[in-house]
Design a protein that fits this description.
The complex is a heterodimer.
Chain A: H1 14-17, H2 27-31, H3 44-52, H4 74-78, H5 85-100, H6 104-110, H7 112-121, H8 127-131, H9 133-142, H10 159-165, E1 178-182, H11 184-189, H12 192-204, E2 209-210, H13 219-223, H14 227-246, E3 249-253, H15 256-268, H16 275-283, E4 284-286, H17 287-296, E5 311-315, H18 318-322, H19 328-333, E6 340-343, H20 362-379, E7 383-386, H21 389-399, E8 403-404, H22 406-413
Parallel strand pairs in A: 1-2, 1-3, 3-4, 5-6, 5-7, 7-8
Helix pairs in contact in A: 3-5, 10-12, 12-22, 14-16, 15-16
Chain B: E1 5-14, H1 18-29, E2 34-38, E3 56-57, E4 67-68, H2 72-77, H3 85-89, H4 91-107, E5 112-113, E6 120-123, E7 129-132, E8 135-136, H5 137-140, E9 150-154, H6 163-172, E10 177-181, H7 195-202, H8 205-215, E11 224-228, H9 236-247, E12 250-254, H10 261-276, E13 280-283, E14 286-290, E15 299-304, E16 307-318, E17 328-329, E18 337-338, E19 386-388, H11 398-401, H12 404-418
The chains are: A alpha/beta, B alpha/beta.
């Protein structure tokens, strides 16, 4: 990897050098969901490989439109030449943020672990300012957090606290992989039920499950331009998880953006490499990707029973698609007797992590999601299944339908 | 070291251009558990969204222009080279593939018109004339042999189509043509307007009504009106039909430089057929072959997001294209390699003709295959469960002969037919 010191120590990544491969075919622009709804964004080709030639190390970023990239990643996937456009844009956005100075809003949105820890300490009291309309108006005016964006409620008991009290598991099957479950901030502080379902399913399949010490994956900080703080989280996670991989564990997560961060963003965006990185990145699986592999090895139980809400509309989040493994959750849930899965076509729901929570981006995010909201309503299914928490919250808000992680349906199908 | 198997498929197709998508759709529609996996999109999005089967009679000499072929079927009767991909696949495969693609189009509400014994002669965005066998409803009224002046809409502020230039070139070739300035409302003001912007606007009935209202007074005496290819992405059939009726003229589209709106529609038609039949499409990973020794493949290896994933397959169909699409690579001058399994490539001593517009020998480089499209190994023995389709095959000059999509269709069909699913 080539590295060059810049004003704030951003390396010139392999990622940025891929800009040279661009032939300006505009396939990325045609696929970009943000450029499709707002002219404030000139599209991935323009702010990505085209603008990249003006981004000499240390020179100021002149192209402010890159801030409207939501980093959904569809451009990088459709590019026939392997240009890492979304990743390149993230680096440019971070430089822009450094140049402008980070807003308090972005610092807050980047710190999901801190917010979660403080919030759940005082839950449900801490829900009040977030759910109060007047205070949200104030927050929009002072901070720039959209008053209309839905936030989840803090769980009264964190996932880790639940797991500590959980009785010991039955002896794992010797032939089954040993699993470190990476819960991420959302499962720990907002949706422990997702982690509970994941642990139940993994144990049902005969896997040993360890909840290792872990931190926020760092993605929210990375998305909001705080690469230094994001790298600190990355290194903390690599230090804590690599020893398990050396002992033969795999890392399995239910938060698809966290697992993608381990696999891809640490290297492609944050520029991290080395032995610990390669171990953790290579051993990380998103939940249904892991089950798909067990299935191929003949290690997946299929003792399914009918579920209470068998009609599902499944949305594979943009960040799940970047894993590049298809839609294993939809494939597996279809094998549960009675389950009907409608798959959505839209590439992105719009919220893209914290993008849609920002006052100046909220309407764009709603417009991006509009097609998906109708797809979901038109499906007639009363329940949304989706692998990403921020997408679930956003889709539930904009369709009025409950949104679950597919593992919750699977746990019920196993009778857990 | 090969990673553990991630999933198992009956058929894995590498490449999501027209040949790959169609091979995947044909296999899935015949009940095979099918995965189409591709580095990115390209084949369809860079093309005009029409199906060329055979376009040109051979030029009498290097100095005379190619003659347009009015009848692809008759032109193919005269194609005697047994190694040409269209002859390897055979006429029945070509005819059946055209029919099945037309069925997929109808199922998606996007009719592709035409028959194997007829070429449309359609104007290009530069005002040249291009023969093609199948075209959507929204293009066929542009056939230059049909009566009526070709009036071309000049949309101010849209930089991808110059009606004056196209009309001047059409006139120079003897066709009655002129440009007519027609403004489109609500174009972006803060950046350039993309064809996709205009197509998404024209997907909306209210916008079409507004456009018709504005344009009608300017269309006195116009019988047919050419537009850049922007008539809808999600609802192209409705966009074309409704605007034609409201304007009272025969509307026709002229395909534009990429991203091609009609190419994207064609992609959506075939992708929809693939997915409705239960096939999977993965776009993004870099794909390498998975075989212990030449002759038989275990499947493919997918390099994605920090991992290599192994996918096992009964059959692998390569639809990775030629040099411009990544199927063939030239690591050093004079060298050629096939990108996925490192299969032997049939080449020639000369790569280039002296002049740019002459047919270049490298266009015919590619894989040599047996009758079931299995590529031949270095020893001349065919691989058992790998097939090659589309632009990866040797023996055709797809642009020069005007047979690009015809090869995609016929070979995709023949490859899947040979699997006897």
């Amino acid at each position: 990897m080539t590295t060059m010191a810049t004003s704030f120590d951003l390396p010139v990544l392999d990622t940025q050098l891929t800009a040279d491969l661009c032939i300006k075919c505009n396939i990325c622009t045609a696929a970009c969901p943000v450029a499709a709804v707002t002219e404030l964004f000139p599209g991935p080709k323009v702010v990505g490989p085209q603008a990249q030639r003006f981004r000499a190390p240390g020179a100021p970023v002149v192209d402010h439109a890159v801030d409207y990239c939501s980093a959904c990643g569809v451009c990088s996937r459709v590019c026939p030449h392997g240009i890492e456009i979304a990743e390149m844009n993230l680096v440019a956005k971070a430089r822009l943020a450094d140049q402008r100075g980070l807003s308090l809003r972005n610092r807050l949105l980047g710190r999901s672990e801190l917010v979660g820890r403080l919030g759940s300490l005082f839950a449900p009291l801490s829900d009040l300012p977030i759910q109060n309309k007047l205070l949200r108006r104030l927050a929009e005016w002072t901070l720039g957090v959209s008053r209309d964006a839905a936030f989840p409620r803090f769980a009264r008991q964190s996932f880790r606290a639940w797991f500590k009290r959980l009785g010991s598991a039955p002896a794992p099957a010797a032939a089954m992989p040993k699993v470190v479950y990476f819960h991420g901030c959302s499962t720990n502080y907002y949706e422990p039920r997702v982690g509970q379902a994941a642990v139940a399913v993994l144990r049902h399949l005969g896997c040993e499950v360890v909840i290792a010490e872990q931190n926020c994956c760092g993605l929210p900080l990375q998305s909001n331009g705080e690469f230094g703080a994001a790298r600190a989280y990355a290194h903390a996670n690599l230090r804590k998880l690599a020893p398990y991989v050396r002992q033969g564990y795999v890392i399995v997560g239910t938060s698809t953006s966290c697992t993608l961060t381990f696999k891809h963003e640490y290297h492609a965006v944050l520029g991290i490499s080395g032995e610990e990185h390669d171990l953790v990145s290579g051993a990380t699986y998103d939940f249904f990707e892991f089950l798909q592999m067990l299935d191929a090895a003949g290690q997946l139980k299929t003792d399914f029973r009918p579920v209470t809400r068998p009609a599902l509309v499944y949305h594979a989040p943009c960040q799940f698609r970047t894993h590049g493994v298809g839609k294993p959750a939809a494939d597996l849930l279809r094998r549960v007797p009675g389950v009907q899965v409608t798959e959505t076509q839209a590439e992105c729901c719009g919220v893209a992590g914290t993008y849609g929570l920002k006052a100046e981006k909220y309407q764009i995010a709603v417009d991006v999601g509009r097609g998906l909201f109708s797809e979901i309503r038109d499906s007639g299914a009363p329940t949304i299944a989706c692998d990403s928490e921020t997408c679930r919250w956003w889709l539930a808000q904009h369709t009025g339908l409950p949104a679950v992680h597919p593992v919750e349906v699977l746990a019920e199908a196993y009778g857990l | 070291m090969t990673p553990p198997v991630q999933a198992r498929y009956d058929v894995i197709v590498v490449g999501a251009g027209l040949a790959g998508l169609l091979a995947g759709a044909f296999a899935a529609r015949r009940g095979a558990r099918t995965l189409v996996i591709a580095r990115g999109l390209g084949g369809t999005h860079l093309g005009p969204g029409t199906i060329d089967v055979w376009g040109y009679a051979p030029a009498a000499s290097a100095d005379t222009p190619r003659a347009l072929a009015p009848n692809p079927s008759a032109a193919l009767d005269a194609l005697t080279d047994p190694l040409h991909p269209l002859n390897v696949a055979g006429r029945p495969a070509l005819a059946a593939a055209l029919g099945e693609l037309q069925t997929m189009g109808s199922e998606a509400g996007y009719a592709l018109r035409g028959t194997l014994d007829h070429n449309y002669f359609l104007p290009t965005a530069l005002g040249a004339v291009r023969p093609t066998c199948l075209a959507p409803d929204s293009m066929v009224a542009g056939d230059v042999r049909m009566p009526g002046e070709l009036v071309l809409a000049d949309v101010p502020g849209f930089r991808d189509f110059y009606a004056d230039l196209a009309a001047a070139n059409l006139r120079a070739a003897g066709h009655a043509a002129r440009a007519l300035p027609l403004e489109l409302p609500r174009l972006p003001t803060q950046r350039e307007a993309f064809a996709t912007d205009l197509a998404r606007l024209l997907d909306q009935p209210a916008y079409r009504a507004e456009v018709a209202e504005r344009w009608r007074p300017h269309l006195t005496g116009v019988t047919r009106l050419g537009l850049p290819a922007i008539l809808g992405l999600a609802h192209p059939e409705a966009a074309w039909r409704e605007l034609s009726e409201r304007l009272g003229v025969a509307l026709f589209e002229l395909p534009l430089p990429p991203p091609s709106v009609p190419g994207m529609r064609l992609f959506d038609v075939v992708r929809g057929a693939l997915e409705r039949a239960g096939g999977r499409l993965i776009v993004g990973p870099l794909v390498r072959g998975w075989a212990d020794e030449p002759g038989t493949a275990h499947g493919i290896l997918s390099e994605t997001s920090g991992h290599t994933r192994a996918y096992a397959a009964q059959h692998v169909i390569l639809a990775t294209g030629g040099f411009r699409h990544g199927g063939l690579e030239s690591p050093a001058p004079g060298q050629v390699r096939e990108a996925v399994f490192n299969l032997p490539v049939t080449t020639g001593l000369e790569w280039f003709a002296p002049l740019y517009w002459q047919p270049h020998p490298y266009a015919r480089f590619g894989l040599s295959v047996d009758q079931a499209l299995h590529p031949l190994g270095v020893d001349g023995v065919a691989w058992t469960n790998v097939q090659a389709v589309g632009g990866l095959l040797a023996g055709a000059d797809r642009n020069g002969e005007g047979c690009r999509e015809g090869i995609d269709l016929a070979t995709a069909y023949r490859a899947v037919q040979a699997l006897e699913l």
